[in-house]
């Protein structure tokens, strides 16, 4: 089982719709969770982080965390063509002195104009 | 506030050569992590440094090494390059690398081995 799993996509949504991106993780002791956006040929850009169960909103983005289900998601409201990118879920387990971020392989999002 | 700076941006090397990549973190960031990104494998963790000490290492051969200087700048070195080492090498820096700290990436160094 991979440590952080994401559906590779592509996930296609029409412009203006809500895009829902999902991520599951295997280490139950994981403490913090991140969403990065990566455009083709560019480096990952941090867009959201969440540390506590529940929802966290930032503009058009909402991160949702459910530690009991080991599940984190990212909702993008009013999706725009410029949101088309690969979205990477990352987990910082921070257990047993583990200082690293573990990444999923990413979900490719396509927003259709 | 300056971001994470990686140099060089692009490199072309021949098999068997060695290469050194550099990462200058955001001011105040003392944790530097290195990742290799390839289309098939995604982001693979190489190693993490904090206060000149390697705290974590990924599953890469000994040809991959790194170090960190007292000013938190980090370098990684790959010796005896192989074709499979062609990838985007990214560094990410954070204040401490501990829980609840965000990591920010540099622009990456794209290494091509021919």
List the helices and strands and how they pair.
The complex is a heterodimer of chains A (113) and B (114).
Chain A: E1 4-5, E2 11-14, E3 19-25, E4 32-38, E5 45-50, E6 54-58, E7 61-66, E8 71-76, E9 85-92, E10 102-103, E11 107-112
Parallel strand pairs in A: 2-11
Antiparallel strand pairs in A: 1-3, 3-8, 4-5, 4-9, 6-7, 7-8, 9-10, 9-11
Chain B: E1 5-7, E2 10-13, E3 19-24, E4 31-38, E5 42-50, E6 53-57, E7 64-68, E8 74-78, E9 87-94, E10 104-105, E11 109-113
Parallel strand pairs in B: 2-11
Antiparallel strand pairs in B: 1-3, 3-8, 4-5, 4-9, 5-6, 7-8, 9-10, 9-11
Detailed description of the structure:
The complex is a heterodimer of chains A (113) and B (114). With 113 residues, chain A is mainly β. In chain A, the strands form two sheets. In chain A, strands 2, 4, 5, 9, 10 and 11 form a six-stranded mixed β-sheet that branches. The N and C termini of chain A lie far apart (36 Å). In chain A, 39% of the residues are buried. In chain B, 37% of the residues are buried. Chain B is globular and about 40 Å long. By secondary structure, chain B is mainly β. At the A-B interface, strand 4, strand 5, strand 9 and strand 10 of A face strand 4, strand 5, strand 9 and strand 10 of B.
């Amino acid at each position: 089982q991979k440590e952080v799993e994401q559906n590779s996509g592509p996930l296609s949504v029409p412009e203006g719709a809500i895009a829902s991106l999902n991520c599951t993780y295997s280490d139950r002791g994981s403490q913090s969770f991140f969403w990065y956006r990566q455009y083709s040929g560019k480096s990952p850009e941090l867009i959201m982080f969440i540390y506590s169960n529940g929802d966290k909103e930032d503009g058009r983005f909402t991160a949702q965390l459910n530690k009991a289900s080991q599940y984190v998601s990212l909702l993008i409201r009013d999706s725009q063509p410029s949101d088309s990118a690969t979205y990477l879920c990352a987990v910082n387990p921070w257990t047993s002195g583990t200082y690293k971020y573990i990444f999923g392989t990413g979900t490719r999002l396509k927003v259709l104009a | 506030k300056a971001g994470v700076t990686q140099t060089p941006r692009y490199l072309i090397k021949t098999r068997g050569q060695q290469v050194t990549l550099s990462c200058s973190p955001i001011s105040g960031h003392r944790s530097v992590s290195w990742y290799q990104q390839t289309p098939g494998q995604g982001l693979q963790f190489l190693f993490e440094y904090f206060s000149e000490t390697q705290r974590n290492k990924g599953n890469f051969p000994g040809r991959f090494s790194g170090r960190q200087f007292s000013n938190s700048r980090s370098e990684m070195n790959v010796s005896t390059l192989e074709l499979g080492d062609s990838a985007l090498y990214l560094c990410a820096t954070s204040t401490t690398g501990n829980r609840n700290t965000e990591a920010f990436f540099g622009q990456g160094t794209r290494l091509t081995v021919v």
